[in-house]
Amino acid sequence: MLATIDPIALKFGPISIHWYAICIVSGLLLAVYLAQRWAPEKGIDPENILDFILLAFPIAIIGARFYYVIFQWSYYSQNPSEILAIWNGGIAIYGGLIAGAAVLYWFAKRHAIAVLDFLDITVPGVMIAQSIGRWGNFINQEAYGKAVSHLNYVPEWIRQQMYIEGSYRVPTFLYESLWNLLGFLIIMGLRRFKKGLRQGDSTSFYLIWYGIGRFVIEGMRTDSLMFAGLRVSQWVSIAILILGIVLLYFRKQRPEADYKMKN
């Protein structure tokens, strides 16, 4: 029997703090820091970022859980007491992104902030937060692929945690974490040499990059939510990929003067 990581990081009497929560909160804090740092570039008050997160984060978590429960209703309808047991895992990132995007749109309009400007400073942080958050899936032993005979290409401690139900499992959580990390580094590089980077470019890149990666990696998973012959996340990946391409195309059709870019 291989040793696995205890999903509970700390205990204070009856209170347990899970690694899953630590990963999510760590990613969130880094995303907030980056967005606040870049906000002045777009003429946005950094305090607006904090106000937005305080509103959007709980709604995004609810959206992520609601999304997951809906597509696993056959189970949760028989186990209603587990619907709120989010500490056991079972949130769908797309549900969180959809809920968060809806709040962002409302918040930006309410505070007279250009939606694309707001998105451009938040999506890099979202991408690195997603990369970190996938390690919560690793500790919970979820978001994995098919059974394989060995995992000699990853460190021993990952192999041990990926020994699930009597077999080694393809570490799709790791693939997506690395894909998002690479996307984040590319965005950072584009920002570094952003002379030709215009409003909406970072958002378009995120939608296209994440859509491609998630579609491919989701196809490797065996624990995904299914709908109409494809995994639910693959359908959503196709939608956001198309959205990213359409956004990039139409933004490139507008004259340079129409863009708000502060160097």
TrEMBL record:
Binding-site positions, a 1,2-diacyl-sn-glycero-3-phospho-(1'-sn-glycerol): 134
Primary location class: membrane
Enzyme class: transferase
Presence of the UniProt keyword RNA-binding in the record: no
InterPro entries with a match to the protein in the record: Lgt
Annotated compartments: Cell membrane
Pathway per the UniProt entry: Protein modification; lipoprotein biosynthesis (diacylglyceryl transfer)
TM segment ranges: 17-36, 48-71, 83-107, 172-191, 203-220, 232-250
Membrane recorded as keyword: yes
Entry's Gene Ontology molecular function annotations: phosphatidylglycerol-prolipoprotein diacylglyceryl transferase activity
Source taxon at top rank: Bacteria
Pfam families on file: LGT (PF01790)
Membrane topology recorded in Swiss-Prot or TrEMBL: Multi-pass membrane protein
Keywords from the UniProt entry: Cell membrane, Membrane, Transferase, Transmembrane, Transmembrane helix
EC number: 2.5.1.145
Family in the record: Belongs to the Lgt family.
Task performed by this protein: Catalyzes the transfer of the diacylglyceryl group from phosphatidylglycerol to the sulfhydryl group of the N-terminal cysteine of a prolipoprotein, the first step in the formation of mature lipoproteins.
UniProt xrefs under HAMAP family: Lgt (MF_01147)
Protein name: Phosphatidylglycerol--prolipoprotein diacylglyceryl transferase
Gene source species: Streptococcus raffinosi
Species lineage: Bacteria, Bacillati, Bacillota, Bacilli, Lactobacillales
Protein encoded by which gene: lgt
